[in-house]
Each structure stands twice: as structure tokens, then as C-alpha cells.
TrEMBL record:
Keywords, sorted A to Z: DNA-binding, Transcription, Transcription regulation
DNA-binding region: 33-52
Matching Pfam families: TetR_C_33, TetR_N
Keyword flag Cell membrane: no
Keyword Phosphoprotein assigned: no
Organism the protein comes from: Pelagibaculum spongiae
Occurrences of domain HTH tetR-type (ranges): 10-70
Coiled-coil residue spans: none
GO terms for MF: DNA-binding transcription factor activity; transcription cis-regulatory region binding
Name the record gives this protein: TetR/AcrR family transcriptional regulator
PROSITE patterns per the UniProt record, alphabetical: HTH_TETR_2
Length: 203
């Protein structure tokens, strides 16, 4: 029998989110069900629906927590000392390590799909955009002559490419492609991407 009055609403929500994290880490995104989360937290399924609209709502809020961690990582790496390319290397590798060390949670951010009638909450969309904005601001120091929209597109292109390497790595597909470790690949990508932008800017 689940507990019914041991915790406040906010405490219960936190319990459910922590229970979901445990399940995601151990079983992956597909292992998350309302019943499993409630049982892991020591409550009934009905209690879960008292603090979340539905299972999608819980997963979105859990994904927002993951995005908060990624944003903190980006902020920390961008504050490091060094030239812009060195900082970008550190940022890209830091992101890749986060994806590797938290692979199931990281993958859930991108694999969970809401119904088409339910767009992502604005708070979630803002966090995703914030990732690119911070990188764009750093790019602006490297390429002051480029327009804001060009810098944003460059940030999105670079990060999409890094994301692709991370996906191949955490799913074991780099081994299939005989591409080796992801860190040298990411270093090569950052060097060539930024080198190409620098070359095009000097024309």
C-alpha cells in the first residue's frame, strides 16, 4: 500500500521525479511508466496524477532538470580561461562526457515526443534556445563581422554535429563505423568547423 500523507505536494513531486530518474538510469526511457514511478516512490499511481497532469508532464519536467544541468555545464565551460577555440574544445568535450555519463537521461531529452497537440512548454523551449545563445555570444567574439542570425545558425550547425557524434557513441555505433573514440572526432570537428568559418570570414 502506498503512503498517502507522508509528504507535501512539492515533496511528493520531488519523490516522483527522483523515482523516475532511478528508472531511467537503470532501464532507459522506455522503462518509465506511471506504475513503476509510483511504486519506486512508495505511492499509488493516483498520487502521481495528483502532482502531474500525466506521464508526459512528468517526463517533460524531468527533461527540464536535465537541461538545467546541461546549461550549468555550458556556463561553467564558457567561463574557463583560454582562447576561443580552446574554450570551444572544452565545452564540446564537456557536453560529450555528460552525454556519455548520463546517456539514458540525455537521450530521453531528445527521444521523448509529445503529442502534436501539446507543444513543449515555453520554459523548456527557452532553455534549449539559451544553449545556442550562449555559444552564439562566444562565436561573436571570434567572428565580429558576422550577423546575429549567421552566428546562431553556426552554433546550431556545430552543436547538431557534436550531438550526432554523441548519439553514435552512446548507442555503440561508432564501433560499427570503426570510428574509434568520440573525443578525437569531436576535437577534429571543432577545429575544422571553426577553421572553415575563420577562412570564409577572411575572404
Amino acid at each position: 500500500m502506498g503512503r498517502r500523507s507522508d509528504h507535501t505536494r512539492e515533496e511528493l513531486k520531488s519523490l516522483m521525479l527522483n523515482a523516475a530518474i532511478t528508472i531511467v538510469v537503470e532501464q532507459g526511457f522506455r522503462g518509465v511508466t506511471a506504475r513503476k514511478v509510483a511504486e519506486q516512490a512508495g505511492y499509488t499511481v493516483g498520487s502521481l496524477y495528483q502532482v502531474f497532469k500525466n506521464l508526459d508532464d512528468l517526463i517533460v519536467q524531468l527533461n527540464e532538470q536535465t537541461m538545467d544541468e546541461i546549461l550549468l555545464l555550458i556556463e561553467r565551460e564558457l567561463q574557463q580561461q583560454g582562447d576561443e577555440i580552446t574554450v570551444m574544445h572544452a565545452l564540446a568535450l564537456g557536453y560529450a562526457r555528460y552525454a556519455s555519463e548520463n546517456s539514458n537521461r540525455w537521450r530521453m531529452v531528445f527521444e521523448h515526443k509529445l503529442p502534436t497537440t501539446h507543444p513543449l512548454p515555453e520554459s523548456f523551449q527557452h532553455k534549449i534556445l539559451s544553449c545556442f545563445v550562449m555559444i552564439t555570444q562566444r562565436f561573436a567574439q571570434l567572428f565580429p563581422q558576422k550577423k546575429d542570425e549567421e552566428l546562431l545558425q553556426a552554433a546550431q550547425a556545430l552543436w547538431s554535429s557534436i550531438h550526432g557524434i554523441c548519439i553514435l557513441s552512446v548507442t555503440g555505433k561508432l564501433d560499427t563505423a570503426k570510428a574509434g573514440n568520440m573525443e578525437p572526432l569531436i576535437g577534429c570537428l571543432v577545429d575544422n568547423f571553426i577553421g572553415g568559418l575563420l577562412a570564409s570570414s577572411q575572404k
